[in-house]
């Protein structure tokens, strides 16, 4: 109770509230503009938050992370272009609803389902906290190494149909984090005699290049366009009543969001698809799905909004990010010398509670903001895409250069920007590189610190949690092989997967 | 195409033009880096394998080369997609904007953050084809807003422009601190 109160106290500061407000409202706007997305915004703002208090910086980034999907639903419903990649399925039923003159119903339903999913996710996080506080300290070096290894494996295997590319990029990420002076043996690794490589390749420089600059290059090299969304008439709170008729779908979808959000490498996409499939299979009107079914819309939005809170679980409890956005947030923790992981729950539990309250507050702020500003957002999304590209390029400079005023960083970042553009154009995933860098670093450190206790390789798995993690790794591999065999036997034809162009936004 | 996706089709992506060019590039880079393993990393005598500074570069580069090989194989065995070189040319063209970015980074410490940002915003808007005065003014105003937000309000760590030193006393101090 005392910790709970000190968590609340942490939030009751003008600078934290302001950061939350800016993050939440900014996140909605960023999410609503197709072509920006939360990853670009967080990457740009990351270095700016280093000078702020950890709770201030984190609430701002958390605000963007948690609210962008609310905003992303607007263009998904109104112009059939998801604002963020995870609103892809929202457009499946949202846009047909708009086409038959039910834009207001679709938008308000999307908001209500998002709110439901968001609060459900936070509820689970709060309920799970005492369990996490007990389980997290059981994770030693061996367990964290195996959990990170499982994370890498899942990131690769989650990119079905592109496993080789995802594997290549994850390995590239692991390689990138090895460049520089080895902290234990003080030997140079892949520096080629260049002094600027001795300190290694900075994660934020890579993140800014791969996410922000690449998006700028992508927009600048593509034809200009200006999405045209029509204003929506009616009360935005109307969706809540209709949502209550579908609370089963909303709750199960949020549940999928929570479970898959906790598992590294899977996240919003898998949650959305599983929820959507569940909603369709259990619906009385499955034929309506894809043609404007409110249940489909609810399933998609509730699932993706439950993920941010759930994704905080592995990050806070084990220090293992499950996807790119939490990987970026991890660097904020490190900069402030707050190391997420088992000890966080023992030493900084007030910060953890503060973050929980921030998550609740952001959902309320966003909901209130959206009830009054949807039509304003429909105007904002008309910004021409090349103009956006110019702005992202200028903003990326702030992020890269403010780190350590290094022109070399800018050049490295520009190089990664071009690589990111190529990957986006090829529709190959960027996230494995970032997770490879972060999880690769964790694996190297944890394996080294576990070594003195290992006499035989079996000592690696001689504790209950490490053994379970090992079994999970084997299970994931076995399931993947089984699926491959089944697919090969079924000779499934290739489908059109252009709708998965998640890297474009 | 069925609009309802099953879990099985999740994350599948079909290839795009230029995939094979990237696959070749990735394989060549991986193999070249791997060939430098002995030169660029050290092996500490008496140390355990997993604690060797060479271990993780070897694992990652070995993995990269294997995955890149399979990716190339997949690309080579798939049907050829038209527009490969057009796509590669677009990648090359994007280097121009990387150049703009580096030029901008070079100019800021000399010309100052505010003037450079406004000038680059307008120049880039012109470069990408905007001619309407409204857009050009919007670009300049956005440049000013970016500077006000990051340098003046958030006080992010950006250098003051050398050109500001030539300004009169009072104004110089303001420009050096806030813009």
Automatic annotation (TrEMBL), chain A:
It comes from the Bacteria. The chain crosses the membrane at residues 12-33, 106-128, 134-156, 163-181, 201-220, 315-335, 355-373, 385-403, 426-445, 465-485. Residues 17-435 form the DUF112 domain. Keywords: Membrane, Transmembrane, Transmembrane helix. InterPro entries: DUF112_TM. The keyword Membrane applies. It holds the Pfam family TctA. It comes from Antarctobacter heliothermus. The keyword Transmembrane helix applies. This is Putative tricarboxylic transport membrane protein.
From TrEMBL, chain B:
The chain crosses the membrane at residues 20-38, 58-76, 88-107, 113-130, 135-154. Keywords: Membrane, Transmembrane, Transmembrane helix. Residues 24-159 form the DUF1468 domain. It comes from the Bacteria. The keyword Repeat does not apply. It holds the Pfam family TctB. The keyword Transmembrane applies. This is Tripartite tricarboxylate transporter TctB family protein.
């Amino acid at each position: 109770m005392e910790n709970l109160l000190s968590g609340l106290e942490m939030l009751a500061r003008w600078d934290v509230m302001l950061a939350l407000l800016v993050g939440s409202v900014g996140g909605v706007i960023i999410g609503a503009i197709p072509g920006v997305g939360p990853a670009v915004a967080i990457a740009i703002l990351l270095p700016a938050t280093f000078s702020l208090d950890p709770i201030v910086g984190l609430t701002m980034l958390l605000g963007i992370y948690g609210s962008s999907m609310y905003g992303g639903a607007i263009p998904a419903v109104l112009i059939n272009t998801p604002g963020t990649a995870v609103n892809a399925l929202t457009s499946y039923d949202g846009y047909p609803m708009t086409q038959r003159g039910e834009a207001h119903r679709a938008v308000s339903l999307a908001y209500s389902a998002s709110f439901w999913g968001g609060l459900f996710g936070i509820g689970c996080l709060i309920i799970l906290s005492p369990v996490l506080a007990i389980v997290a300290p059981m994770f030693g070096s061996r367990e964290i190494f195996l959990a990170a290894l499982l994370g890498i494996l899942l990131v690769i295997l989650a990119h079905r149909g592109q496993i080789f590319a995802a594997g290549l990029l994850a390995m590239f990420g692991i390689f990138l984090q090895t460049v520089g002076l080895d902290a234990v043996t003080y030997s140079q690794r892949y520096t080629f005699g260049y002094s600027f490589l001795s300190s290694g390749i900075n994660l934020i420089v890579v993140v800014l290049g791969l996410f922000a600059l690449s998006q700028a290059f992508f927009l600048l090299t593509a034809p200009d366009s200006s999405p045209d969304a029509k204003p929506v008439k009616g009360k935005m709170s109307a969706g809540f009543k209709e949502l209550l008729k579908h609370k089963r779908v909303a709750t199960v979808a949020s549940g999928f969001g929570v479970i898959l959000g906790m598992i590294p490498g899977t996240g919003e996409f898998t949650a959305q698809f599983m929820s959507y499939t569940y909603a369709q299979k259990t619906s009385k009107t499955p034929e309506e799905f894809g043609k404007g079914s409110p249940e489909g819309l609810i399933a998609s939005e509730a699932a993706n909004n439950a993920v941010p809170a759930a994704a905080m679980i592995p990050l806070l409890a084990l220090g293992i990010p499950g996807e790119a956005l939490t990987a970026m947030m991890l660097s904020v923790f490190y900069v402030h010398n707050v190391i997420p992981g088992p000890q966080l729950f023992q030493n900084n539990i007030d910060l953890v509670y503060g973050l929980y309250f921030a998550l609740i507050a952001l959902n309320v702020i966003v909901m209130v903001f959206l009830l009054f500003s949807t039509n304003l957002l429909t105007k904002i999304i008309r910004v021409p895409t090349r103009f956006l590209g110019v702005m992202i390029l200028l903003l990326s400079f702030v992020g890269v250069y403010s780190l350590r005023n290094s022109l070399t960083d800018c050049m490295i970042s520009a190089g990664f920007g071009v690589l990111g553009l190529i990957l986006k154009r090829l529709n190959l995933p960027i996230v494995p590189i970032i997770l490879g860098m972060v999880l690769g670093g964790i694996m190297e450190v944890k394996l080294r610190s576990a070594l003195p206790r290992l006499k035989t390789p079996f000592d690696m798995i001689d504790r209950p949690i490490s053994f379970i993690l090992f079994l999970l790794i084997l299970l994931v591999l076995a399931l993947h092989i089984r699926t491959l065999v089944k697919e090969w036997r079924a000779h499934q034809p290739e489908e059109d997967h252009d709708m998965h162009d998640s890297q474009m936004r | 195409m069925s609009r309802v996706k099953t879990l099985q089709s999740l994350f599948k992506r079909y290839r795009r033009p230029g995939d094979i060019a990237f696959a070749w590039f990735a394989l060549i880079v991986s193999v070249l880096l791997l060939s430098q393993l002995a030169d660029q990393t050290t092996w500490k005598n008496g140390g355990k394998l997993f604690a060797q500074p060479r271990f993780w570069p070897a694992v990652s580069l070995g993995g990269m080369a294997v995955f890149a090989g399979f990716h190339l194989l997949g690309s080579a065995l798939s049907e050829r997609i038209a527009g490969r070189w057009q796509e590669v040319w677009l990648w090359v063209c994007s280097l121009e904007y990387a150049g703009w970015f580096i030029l901008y980074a070079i100019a800021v410490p000399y010309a100052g953050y505010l003037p450079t940002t406004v000038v680059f915003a307008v120049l880039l808007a012109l470069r990408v084809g905007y001619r309407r005065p409204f857009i050009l003014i919007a670009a300049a105003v956005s440049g000013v807003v970016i500077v006000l937000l990051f340098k003046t309000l958030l006080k992010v760590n950006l250098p003051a422009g050398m050109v500001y030193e030539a300004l009169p006393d009072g104004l110089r101090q303001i420009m050096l601190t806030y813009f």
